[in-house]
Design brief:
Strands 1, 2, 3, 4, 5, 6, 7 and 8 form an eight-stranded mixed beta sheet that branches. With 175 residues, the chain is α+β, with helices and mostly antiparallel strands. The protein contains four helices and eight strands; from the N terminus they run ββββαββαββαα. The longest helix is centred in the last third of the chain and has 17 residues. It has a domain of 117 residues. It is globular, with a radius of gyration of 17 Å. Bound molecules: zinc ion. Zinc ion (ZN) binds next to helix 1.
């Protein structure tokens, strides 16, 4: 039913909030995607929660939020990664505003430490240029994590089971 040729492959750089300067930009997605991430063999890998091969290995896991954004001074979209507390804050903004798409934001670290918490201030709304909207965070993350990408109109549970198989193969191969 789903063929590999229909796989959506998009890549965009992953951006984290630095300790030195705030990030200023505009949300392209309607909401933030919260993903539990395992830290395994020196890199992040997504948790598939049910029957997760990395949970079975008791690999440390932590939730993060991902949303595609445009940054001031950069023409192409990027994927912004924020810690769980900032992601939860963004979700409540999403509920209040019904969609984050088009809203301007400013994100910064609360201290000079790399893992300190992140504050996100949501500001005014500006229309999003149509050509810049079509960024699928799930597909970008798959590219970054070297996992299969989602296929066109593929149900989430179907995609998750393909990711689970890929993770199992990766764990069995030891990396
Ligand atoms: Zn897991």
């Amino acid at each position: 039913m789903y063929s590999e040729s229909l796989e959506v492959r998009i890549s965009a750089p992953l951006v984290r909030v630095s300790t030195t300067r705030p990030i200023v930009g505009q949300f392209l997605d309607r909401t933030v995607e919260i993903v539990r991430v395992h830290w395994w063999n020196g890199r992040g890998m997504p948790c598939v929660v049910e029957d997760c091969p990395l949970c079975e290995e008791a690999v440390r896991v932590r939730p993060y939020g991902y949303i595609s954004v445009l940054l001031v001074g950069r023409p192409a979209a990027v994927v912004l990664e924020v810690p769980a507390s900032a992601a939860t804050e963004l979700l409540s903004w999403k509920v209040r505003l019904s969609s984050l798409q088009g809203f301007l934001f400013r994100a910064y670290r609360t201290s000079g430490k790399p893992n300190s918490s992140v504050e996100v201030h949501v500001g005014d709304h500006r229309e999003v240029n149509r050509g810049r909207r079509l960024l699928c965070v799930r597909s970008c993350l798959a590219t970054i994590w070297e996992l299969p990408g989602p296929q066109f109109e593929e149900p989430l549970n179907h995609y998750t089971s393909r990711v689970r198989s890929a993770l199992r193969a990766r764990v069995a191969a030891g990396g």
